């Protein structure tokens, strides 16, 4: 079973580069791509990725804020 990965970055060229690198590993699967933090939070809730590769500096909700939101959302779901 492949590791499902969500990519979050506001630069298309960066997402393309990450996609190319990950595509070389058959045990990794890109399950989605987000262009900003809020989209990453929404997609993570919907797609349930195993890992998220995310930029720190994104337009709107920045990467660290997004990570905090994802952590809090995950914790709330588990309790």
Question: Concise description?
Answer:
This protein is of the alpha/beta class.
Summing up helix and strand content along with how strands pair, one would put the structural category as alpha/beta
Taken in chain order, the helices and strands follow as EHEHEH
Poorly predicted parts: none
E-strand count: 3
Number of helices: 3
| Rg, Cα atoms, Å | 12 Å
> What is the helix fraction of residues, given as a range?
40-55%
Largest sheet: 3 strands, parallel
How big a fraction of the residues is strand? 15-25%
Mean pLDDT: 92
What does this structure look like?
By secondary structure, the chain is α/β, with parallel strands linked by helices. Helix content is 49%, strand content 22%. It is built from three helices and three strands. It has helices at 12-23, 37-47, 63-78; strands spanning 3-8, 28-34, 51-54. The protein has a three-stranded parallel β-sheet, sandwiched between helices. Helix 2 (37-47) packs parallel to helix 3.
Features:
3 helices, alpha/beta, 22% strand, 79 residues, single chain, 3-stranded parallel sheet, 49% helix
Topology of helices and strands:
Blueprint: E1 3-8, H1 12-23, E2 28-34, H2 37-47, E3 51-54, H3 63-78
Parallel strand pairs: 1-2, 1-3
Helix pairs in contact: 2-3
């Amino acid at each position: 079973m492949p590791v499902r990965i969500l990519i979050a970055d506001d630069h298309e060229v960066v997402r393309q580069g990450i996609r190319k690198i990950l595509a070389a590993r058959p045990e990794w699967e890109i399950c989605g791509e987000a262009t900003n933090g809020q989209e990453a939070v929404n997609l993570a809730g919907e797609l349930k990725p195993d890992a998220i590769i995310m930029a720190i500096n994104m337009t709107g909700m920045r990467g660290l804020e997004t990570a905090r939101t994802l952590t809090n959302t995950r914790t709330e779901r588990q309790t």
